[in-house]
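Protein in question passed on here:
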Amino acid sequence: MFKLGLIINPLAGVGGSVALKGSDGEETARKALAMGAVPMAAVRTAQALEPLKKLELELITAPAEMGADVARSSGFAPSVVGDIQSGNTRAEDTCKIARAMAALGADLILFAGGDGTARDICRELSDSIPVLGIPAGVKIHSGVYAVTPKAAGEIVSMLVKGDLVTLKDQEVRDIDEEAFRQGVVRAKYYGELLVPEEGRYLQHVKNGSGKEDEQLVLEDIAAEVIETMEDDVFYIMGSGSTVKAVMDGLGLPNTLLGVDVVRNRELIASDLTAQQLLEVIGDHDARIVITVIGGQGHIIGRGNQQLSAELLRKVGREHLIVIATKSKLKTLEGRPLIVDSGDSDLNHQLAGLIRVITGYKDAVLYRVADY
């Protein structure tokens, strides 16, 4: 019988919705919780376990909030390994439990977290046992994660059913969070993990930039967005350098790795949390300007968790303004755009063809996946 290990970093991604740009370190996690952040790793793990409920497998998991609670609430009867101090989990717990699962002969370790969690797993296991990440962090540059929680479950389901799935070494990367909060992306390679690869479902390593100078294309995209801006409408400006080009075109300061709000071509609020965005927008007419993560394809759920499911529903799919250069779209090699909002129903509603602005008076239709 297939032996599946399950480990959850319960505080993964807790800093995203409150605009802390990460969750590494006990102090950051405490600050995020004090600001009203709601941990979502358990919810995302439950979504990943959904496709596995009717399959025959042996589930080995960590205690309490690191796995057992979600496993039981999802209908599994897991074996529990290790000891933790509930409410005060640490990276050392992840490492210790990963070692125990490997010793028990787990066929695959499924873990929920971000790049920091992947680093912990990599440090402990290297590529000695297959692993797969459920994306739950603020920043996910590593290639060891499925594109969404549901996709993680689908990959595991294929393995349990005995389908042919390629195993491949994928890079583990993480960034300096302190530099990240200052608007500097400084990614570092930490090693590789052996990951089951299924092209539709596995995330690629984040591609930060292309080889060509695209400044003129960015200026054209910015000109198109600015020209079509409506008076008295709130424009929620997402993160990333492509959105920054629009802010530069407006002559406004920009939070490169945060979310700002513009109205009547003036900046009215900067670097807002998910709750602050809802409060600022209220019942007013609003648009969301977002871009594509090169090489991965995410438009929601990577680095912009401030754009909550509640906000996305309030604004509406028809008011999502997606912008990207054609060269960035080409890095996807035909793979779809991805929405990972944390809400499966909303992900389904946002799926389908969407208009992507690629220049001045220039746009393409591109598919958004439903997984």
Q: What stands out?
A: The longest strand covers residues 187-197.
